[in-house]
Amino acid sequence: MTSTRRHRDDRDDADSDDVQGQPNPREVFVRLLLDTVRDDPYPSGTQLDMIEESIPAELVPEYVQLLADKSREGCFPSTDVLRRMQRMSSAGGATPRC
Q: Which of 54, 65, 83, 94 is the most buried (most CB within 10 A)?
């Protein structure tokens, strides 16, 4: 009985670590991709798709701002990037393209 109790206590401690400021794995993954896209003059559509499939709601404004910054970098903004901004800034957030 003690081992079950200890296991539950370990799990509670892990949950409290997330609350105390350690980002969850999904956020770490999305932030890694956001940094990659930020540094790339021509971001990969595949990476943008991966962001949109995984992004937590609280990171959507940062992502849309990143796309807006990318659009301002060149003379002719990418239609794909503009459509992504439009889709992500709608009330529902990310929606399937197909």
A: 94
